[in-house]
Specification:
single chain; Jelly Rolls; seven-stranded antiparallel sheet; five-stranded antiparallel sheet; 6 helices; about 20% strand
C-alpha cells in the first residue's frame, strides 16, 4: 500500500526561482495581455511534490496542522477518487499515470479544485510564494500583492475543453483609491493570474490559449461563461465578444477571421504564463489517451482592494466571506498579502 505521507523538497533547493520582470516583459504583457515565461520557475523535485499533493487532494487527503491558515479544506473539492494512491516521488523515470485514471475514455470530466493551498502544505508554499508575488509586483507596478484564490485544473486523458472566458468578471472587489495604472479597470481593480504548468505542454494535451490583445476590448463585456466545459466551439465567447467591438476607422475592429490565438504549447512543466484578468483565455480538449494535463492558476489583486459587498453577496463563491455587511476589508489570513513579505515571511 502506498504511503500517504507527502514527500518533502530538499531544503537546499528553492521552491520558486524567479527574477524580476524586464522592461520587455512589461511591454509584452501590456501589449498582448499575457506573458509567456518559458524557463521553469519551479524545480523538477517541487513539481513532483505538487503533483503528488494533487493525488492526495483528489482523494480527500488533506494536510492538517494546528493553526493552519485557511481552515484545512479547499473551497471547492472534487468527487473523491477511490483508487489506491500511487507511489510518492522521487521517480527513477516517468511518474505513474495521474489522477487515478481508470482507462475509461467516455465522458471524462475536467476536474477543478479551488483554494487547494488551504488543504495542502506544498501548494501553500507555491501559492503564497513571495517570489511569485514580487514578480507580479514588478510586472504591474503594484505596491503590494494579495492572493485571492487558486484554481487547480486537472484534465485527464480524453477530457473536454475549457471554454474561453475572462477572469475579471468572477471577482467582486473595488478600490476606494484606484492605483493609477488600474484606473480604467472595473471599480479600479485589476486581476492578474499566474498559470503554472505541472506537465510538459504540447498541442495534444490542450494547453492554455489566449486571444491576443483581448484585454483591450470593451470593459463592459464581463466575459463570464455559464459553463466552463465545452464539447463544440470552446472559443465561442471570445468570437462573440470580438464581434461586438466598436469599429475602428470604419472597419470592424475584430472579426472571427482576424482574431489571433496563441497557445502555451511548448511550456515545460514548472514554467508559467501570466495574464491580465481581462484577457480571454481557455483550452482545447486533452486528446491524449494516456497523459494528463495539470496546471494551477493563482489570482492576484493589489493589497489594498476591498469587497464590493453588494456584488459579493450574490456570488456562491464569495458570499461566505461577506456575512458582515459593514466590513469591506479582506481577511489577511484567508487572502494573504504575499508581497512585500511581512516580518520576513509570507
Amino acid at each position: 500500500m502506498a504511503s500517504a505521507t507527502p514527500p518533502q523538497s530538499s531544503l537546499n533547493v528553492p521552491d520558486v526561482k524567479l527574477s524580476a520582470s524586464s522592461p520587455s516583459d512589461i511591454s509584452s504583457f501590456e501589449e498582448d495581455g499575457f506573458l509567456k515565461v518559458s524557463k521553469p520557475v519551479l524545480s523538477p523535485m517541487f513539481v513532483d511534490e505538487l503533483n503528488y499533493a494533487l493525488e492526495r487532494a483528489i482523494r480527500g487527503m488533506y494536510d492538517s496542522e494546528d493553526g493552519k491558515r485557511g481552515g484545512g479544506i479547499p473551497d471547492k473539492a472534487v468527487k473523491r477518487v477511490k483508487m489506491a494512491l500511487p507511489p510518492p516521488p522521487p521517480y527513477e523515470s516517468a511518474p505513474p499515470p495521474a489522477l487515478g485514471f481508470s482507462n475509461n475514455h467516455q465522458n471524462v470530466r475536467t476536474l477543478q479544485i479551488v483554494n487547494v493551498w488551504k488543504a495542502s502544505l506544498p501548494f501553500e508554499r507555491l501559492v503564497l510564494s513571495s517570489e511569485l508575488g514580487e514578480f507580479i509586483a514588478s510586472l504591474t507596478g503594484w505596491p503590494s500583492v494579495r492572493v485571492v484564490q487558486d484554481q487547480t485544473w486537472l484534465k485527464p486523458p480524453s477530457s473536454q475543453a475549457l471554454a474561453f472566458h475572462r477572469d475579471r468578471g468572477y471577482f467582486m472587489f473595488r478600490s476606494a483609491v484606484p492605483f493609477p495604472p488600474d484606473e480604467d479597470c472595473i471599480n479600479g481593480v485589476r486581476i492578474v493570474t499566474a498559470w503554472i504548468a505541472l506537465d510538459d505542454m504540447d498541442d495534444e494535451l490542450g494547453p492554455l490559449e489566449y486571444a491576443v490583445g483581448s484585454h483591450k476590448w470593451q470593459k463592459s463585456s464581463h466575459g463570464t461563461n455559464p459553463s466552463f466545459f465545452e464539447s463544440t466551439d470552446y472559443r465561442h465567447l471570445a468570437h462573440h465578444a470580438a464581434a461586438k467591438e466598436p469599429p475602428c476607422g470604419g472597419e470592424p475592429q475584430n472579426t472571427k477571421e482576424a482574431l489571433t490565438f496563441t497557445s502555451m504549447s511548448g511550456l515545460p512543466r514548472g514554467s508559467m504564463s501570466i495574464h491580465d484578468g481581462d484577457t480571454y483565455h481557455g483550452s482545447g480538449p486533452n486528446k491524449s489517451r494516456t497523459r494528463c494535463r495539470r496546471g494551477v492558476g493563482i489570482h492576484y489583486v493589489r493589497g489594498d482592494v476591498e469587497w464590493d459587498i453588494e456584488e459579493a453577496q450574490k456570488s456562491k463563491i464569495w458570499r461566505r466571506y461577506v456575512s458582515d455587511r459593514q466590513n469591506t476589508n479582506l481577511d489577511d489570513k484567508l487572502f494573504p498579502i504575499v508581497w512585500p513579505p511581512r516580518h520576513g515571511k509570507v
